[in-house]
Design a protein that fits this description.
ubl conjugation pathway; mainly beta; F-box protein Hrt3/FBXO9 C-terminal domain-containing protein; 9 strands; eight-stranded antiparallel barrel; Hrt3/FBXO9_C; 229 residues
Length: 229
């Protein structure tokens, strides 16, 4: 179990072409690793054996009553956000009112074409994970082809009218598990209309964008569906 080649292959599975080398410092955080096992233990990564989940709860004012103009109901809004990472660079994100016991099953199939599931790619940069997501499309899901630039794990959509979600999350730790927390640091919506990009940044308040916490899911497999780039 201490064989260095085993740990090197484990690191390749997690970081892919961004793994770097042991005789050079990590470009993102200037950390020196003394072995592949040391890198696997100490370097920030995302977990594949489950998904990251957050619960958002807030109050929303309703419409005034017709019978009593002084009465205005207050609605309690609750929903969950799910993010699942795969070893080959794919990522799924879904926002749903379903409890985690039902919500995790909706992103179990990596070829899911549900309209409420965002699909995309992610990259790791030190303790930051960057996501590029798009809404699931029946035509794209059927063909299964996404043109990629050599060496890139980000999707390139040639559709003249497309919407992308650009997200940056910071990896944190819990007392019982490393890399168990994702904290929002940046969220931008980019809309492309007739080859013109318009971007909008979300206000990342703790109330509407709480941290996501990792939850193991036994039904998720860890096999990559395509070779690592």
């Amino acid at each position: 179990a201490r064989d260095e080649e085993l740990w090197r292959l484990a690191c390749v599975k997690v970081w892919g072409h961004s793994i770097g080398t042991l005789d050079a410092q990590d470009a993102e955080n200037s950390t020196v690793y003394y072995s592949w096992r040391d890198m696997f233990i100490r370097r920030e990564r995302v977990n594949f054996s489950g998904c990251y989940i957050s619960k958002t709860t807030y109050l929303r004012m309703g419409e005034n009553s017709f019978q009593d103009q002084f009465y205005r109901p207050v609605q309690l809004v609750e929903y969950y956000r799910y993010i699942r990472f795969m070893p080959d660079g794919k990522v799924l994100m879904m926002t749903s009112a379903d409890e985690p016991s039902q919500g995790v099953t909706k992103i179990r199939n990596v070829h899911n074409i549900r309209p409420d599931v965002l699909r995309g790619r992610y990259r790791l940069f030190g303790d930051t994970v960057t996501l590029v997501l798009q809404k699931s499309s029946q035509s794209r899901a059927t063909t299964g082809h996404v043109r990629q630039r050599r060496g890139s794990v980000m999707p390139l959509d040639e559709d003249s009218n497309a919407t992308q979600f650009l997200i940056e999350l910071r990896i944190g730790h819990s007392p019982k598990r490393r890399c168990a927390q994702l904290v929002w640091s940046h969220y931008t919506l980019v809309q492309k209309r007739n080859k013109v990009d318009t971007s909008s940044e979300f206000d990342l308040t703790d109330a509407k964008y709480p941290s996501l916490w990792f939850s193991p899911v036994k039904s998720y497999h860890l096999d990559a569906d395509s070779p690592l780039v």
